[in-house]
Amino acid sequence: MKIGVLGIGITKFGEIWDRGIRELLLDSQLRALNDAKLTPEQIDSIFTGNMCGDSLSGQLHIGAMASENLNLDKPSIRVEGACASGSIALRQGIAAIESGAANIVMVNGVEKMTDVSTDQVTTALMGAGDEELEGFNGLTFPGLYALLANAYMDKYDLTREVLAEVSVKNHYHGARNTYSQFKNELTIDDVINSTMVADPLTLMDCSPITDGAATIIIANESIAKKMNTEVYITGSALATDTLSLARRKSLLEISAGKMAAQNAYKQAKITPKEINFAEVHDCFSIAEIYAVEALGLAKQGEAGKLYKEKQTYFDAKTPINTSGGLKACGHPVGATGVKQAIEATMQLRGEAKERQVKNATIGVTHNVGGSGATAVIHVFKRMK
Ligand code: COA
């Protein structure tokens, strides 16, 4: 597979009170068109990842909105797969190009989350879990990931201090990213001593509630070559698992992530050793540990070692979440997967400035929906 990345555009992530879902989306769409040096009429098809438009903004039909924003009447649909919506939209865009149905595709992700109370957001996000088995019984997403954290820390040698290092590193990267939600650096004590949310996860182990939009424009290989494109997507895979944790075979891994990674690596003809950096789904600090193991960047039960040895910083051996991840860059749920693709593109183009990974050729994105019921992996490669 060889799908070229023609352009990228992203809004600042955070509490963006002066803009609604439409304006956020339009902003990233125009930025990406400008970056790709394309006019709207050159887009054949649009896919937009969005999870909570209906529950948080009273707005469905985001597909038509994305098309109307550009004054187009082209095929345009909303894609939903919980927090993996953005990556699923990207995968659908790739499938449209591979099938020959489209040559140039715009993929957006957008979410407007901060206009309502935390209670409303928590209820809406819980739609990504199993309502009968989990939501109805009072579980929330911090609660679900706390169950995973307890299971993992009980079995493996992961201390509270090492788990906190995930957030410390992500805030260090976020402080070096112009579009991130949080620019403050943290210490391990800051993480451990912040407000308890769901034991052992404190506020600083949790991704925040975020507004934001991101857009990537992709094309088939021949168009991309003509436009001197540097960055290509060479693998794209999705796998699923049970909605509820109770029905999982194991709480010690997110096996959909593993399966999707293996399939994406096969398509891209790479091994984990060749990966220069990864943007992964750290909705809670423990989720990053699972992600690193799913990607094969550490053996099962051993990801903590990378954090203990500070190997996951942008200038270390295995850079993870150079954007700041969901924790510090922010997590506008439907936009996150597209943001990861944008960070991968920036790194491979050499545009990541203060957090630039040196000589990066291959980057991977890992985006999860729910507590691991959907996982999407993309492989990005610099070809020049
Ligand atoms: N990390 C760092 N700071 C955070 C934060 C986070 N995750 N969440 C909130 N804050 C900060 C706010 O910026 C605010 O700071 P200020 O007082 O300086 O302005 C302060 O903490 C209080 O914010 P508030 O909005 O009142 O927090 P809250 O208690 O309503 O929400 C959580 C905190 C953890 C409940 C919320 O961030 C959350 O639900 N996160 C998880 C989201 C999620 O589940 N996503 C899907 C994952 S699959």
UniProtKB/TrEMBL annotation:
Recorded superkingdom: Archaea
Domain Thiolase C-terminal: 239-382
GO biological process: isoprenoid biosynthetic process
Alphabetical UniProt keywords: Isoprene biosynthesis
SUPFAM superfamilies associated with the record: Thiolase-like
Domain Thiolase N-terminal: 15-222
GO MF annotation list: acyltransferase activity, transferring groups other than amino-acyl groups
InterPro entries, sorted: Thiolase (IPR002155), Thiolase-like (IPR016039), Thiolase_C_2 (IPR055140), Thiolase_N (IPR020616)
CDD domains: SCP-x_thiolase
Pfam families: Thiolase_C_1, Thiolase_N
NCBIfam families, alphabetized: PRK06064.1 (NF004720)
Designated name of the protein: Thiolase domain-containing protein
Taxonomic source organism: Candidatus Iainarchaeum sp
Lineage of producing organism: Archaea, Candidatus Iainarchaeota, Candidatus Iainarchaeia, Candidatus Iainarchaeales, Candidatus Iainarchaeaceae
